[in-house]
Amino acid sequence: MLVSYRRVDELAVISINNPPVNALSHGVRKGVLEAITTAQTDDSKAIVILCEGRTFIAGADISEFGKPIEEPSLPQVNAAIEDSAKPVIAAIHGTALGGGFELALSCHYRCALDSAAVGLPEVNLGLLPGAGGTQRVPRLIGVKAALDMITSGQKISAQKALEQGLIDRVFDGQVEESALAYARELITAGAGPRRISEIAIPQESFDSEAFDAYRNLLRKRKRGQEAPQRIVDCIEAAMEKSFDEGLVYERSRFVECCQSEQSAALRHIFFAERQAPKVPGLDKAVAPRAIDRVAIIGAGTMGGGIAMSFANAGIPVTLLELNQKALDAGQALIARNYATTVSKGKLSQEQAVARQGLISGTTDYEDLADVDLVIEAVFESMDVKRQVFGRLDQVCKEGAILASNTSYLDVNEIAAATSRPQDVVGLHFFSPANVMRLLEVVRADKTAEDVIATAMALGKRIGKVPVLAGVCYGFIGNRMLRQYAREAQLCMIEGAEPGQIDGVLTRFGMAMGPLAVGDLAGLDIGYKARQALTDEQKGDPRSYCIADALVEMGRLGQKTGAGYYRYDPDTRARSADPEVLAVIEEQAKLQGVERRVLSDEEILDRHLMALINEGFRILEEGIAQRPGDIDVVYVHGYGFPSYRGGPMFYASQRGLSAVYERIESLHKSTGEAHWAPAPLLTELVRNNQTLGDWMAKKN
Ligand code: 3H9
């Protein structure tokens, strides 16, 4: 039963049981409405709404969005709760989120366990609170605090909610027992229904200018996103309109958001993130290995960031470097990173000290004898990696997982340097590793099933989104990135300036343009990698000659103050550099390219189509398990705008036949083999099928 109703003496208890997160599906809404109606007719004196299982209601049922709304809607349920003639008390444990918190706000009193949290995260799904949240929250905490809470979508702790007045009572111990005691207390005190709708919004100097200033702030902070702007509209309406008119206004804006492409994209990413760690075909009986102690080889930026990811999750880490000096430098960098986090107020000094205390250092491989997992994060060279793995094979205990953080290299070849390839896996983190959420888990030919199960579970434990990838040059993300980066080079030599290319892509929503990213990472990295290749392996010189010329001039990117752009030594502000234009023009001449004006549309399409076409190849080869996995990789590892759902979702939204035609036209106009439409794309378009059809057939 989704919703049950029972009496405990003079109290009516409405209990919701819709695992895993008590989402407000149609059945739950109907059940709550019926129970509230029943409670009006008996001799109960107060009504308590609580949830079974691990959490209070985590929101509307997201899988119902995009389908026709079945009545009762949540606003109808909430209206019935607020109208109740008897006091209604919400008893919160776990998280009360979105529609779940809005339901609690319709109750007359809210109590919570001290471990609980509340929030309105709708904005993360391209939505706004559509069941009274934008109208009730400002009445309780004021306009500014409501704007901050609802546009950020961040959860707040029960304690903070108590201080703000969003919750009336916080207790520790057992939720039901404490909530019933609180309800009895209210009855004894003669407390009746207390409706937020009847509260006037605290007077503040928030006029239309202040609202516009807030909208402008959000244009920067939530670039390209529509829902945050609509949230401001609703909160402004809360100030200007009556409560009932405000609700009507909120509802209409909610429906608009719900039908938007942005919300569809963000909902796709929400489910894709949760789908990604699942590996079909993996025997469910396979138990993950226990990981209690981890070692990282290499204390550079990457190794240090990985070490922090584990320490942040409470897992002890040993950091190994070749010599004490390098180790000291690595540990100093970690200390600086923690200090910055403390100075930003994101961590307390004690927490930082505790986390840092979990990271110890060594220069001796013998100290790794007891660890359960080693992650190698050394220089990207097969020889060096094979040496490291040979050494790990000698010192690590039986059953230890040996992982490489390689970004491109063949994990089978690395595994072959050990006598235990079944224990070897790729764990590809993204820089800065303590911040970026993506983790590519690379399954080599002989990687054991329980190693994959462990990697997926561990990824989640350390707060990452793990995505399974097969072995190929660059796995999912970097393999696609090569095609994308290549287009940036070709657009440049054919006529575009760095600022135009980066501008087009950032306006599309990418966190940074490809050339600014190159400058940030350092142009010497790609240059060095190319030096190890033959001319044939390097491919078309037009796709790297500008980068090579800049490196040879000493322009390595931000670290030398100049790359594709010039950087102010003090502020790091970037500006266009005529010297770069001269280099581009010279290289175009040398390559016999006649420069022309490229439209923004051409630039955007070429970059996106390059990603998409390679994505289809990756899917067909089984390097990625599903289109959603590719989207998760691009959103969490490469700054692709989540509100566009990732490259494969974008392709589906644009229409596969339109995408095919665009790629085929690029193929025809350039004559380049890499623009040949991927066979899977061609097949789907020919059969008038979608990626969803393909996945359904595959499973
Ligand atoms: C809203 O409320 C709109 C209203 O304002 C207006 C209405 C009119 N629906 O994340 P987990 C599934 S918008 C459906 O791994 P955790 C999830 O897919 C909503 N399904 O667990 C997964 O399924 P599976 C506002 C949902 O413990 C399983 O539950 N609310 C929903 O790490 C476990 O999820 C939100 O945005 C849902 N609402 O984290 C909250 N939520 O096992 C969204 C979860 O098949 N949810 N599932 O893969 C969360 O943030 C996290 O799930 C939560 C638990 C923190 C609750």
Describe the structure in your own words.
The structure is a single chain. This protein is of the alpha/beta class. The chain folds into three domains: 3-258, 2-enoyl-CoA Hydratase, Chain A, domain 1, CATH 3.90.226.10; 294-469, Rossmann fold (3-Layer(aba) Sandwich), CATH 3.40.50; 477-590, N-(1-d-carboxylethyl)-l-norvaline Dehydrogenase, domain 2 (Orthogonal Bundle), CATH 1.10.1040.10. It is 50% helix and 12% strand. It contains 30 helices and 19 strands. The strands form four sheets. Strands 12-11-10-13-14-15-16-17 form an eight-stranded mixed sheet, sandwiched between helices. Strands 1-2-3-4-6-9 form a six-stranded mixed sheet, sandwiched between helices. A three-stranded mixed sheet has the order 5-7-8. Strand 14, helix 16 (411-415) and strand 15 form a beta-alpha-beta unit. Helix 1 packs parallel to helix 2 (74-83). The longest helix has 21 residues, at 600-620. The protein is globular. Bound molecules: (S)-3-Hydroxyhexanoyl-CoA (3H9).
Task: List strands and helices in order, with pairings.
Blueprint: E1 3-8, E2 11-16, H1 26-41, E3 46-51, H2 74-83, E4 88-92, E5 95-97, H3 99-106, E6 109-113, E7 117-119, H4 133-141, H5 143-152, E8 156-157, H6 158-164, E9 169-171, H7 175-188, H8 208-221, H9 227-240, H10 243-258, H11 261-275, E10 294-297, H12 301-312, E11 317-320, H13 324-343, H14 349-357, E12 359-362, E13 373-376, H15 382-395, E14 401-404, H16 411-415, E15 424-429, E16 438-443, H17 449-461, E17 465-470, H18 477-494, H19 498-508, H20 514-521, H21 523-531, H22 535-538, H23 545-552, E18 566-567, E19 574-575, H24 578-590, H25 600-620, H26 627-637, H27 647-654, H28 656-670, H29 679-686, H30 691-698
Parallel strand pairs: 2-3, 3-4, 4-6, 5-7, 6-9, 10-11, 10-13, 11-12, 13-14, 14-15, 16-17
Antiparallel strand pairs: 1-2, 7-8, 15-16, 18-19
This protein binds (S)-3-Hydroxyhexanoyl-CoA.
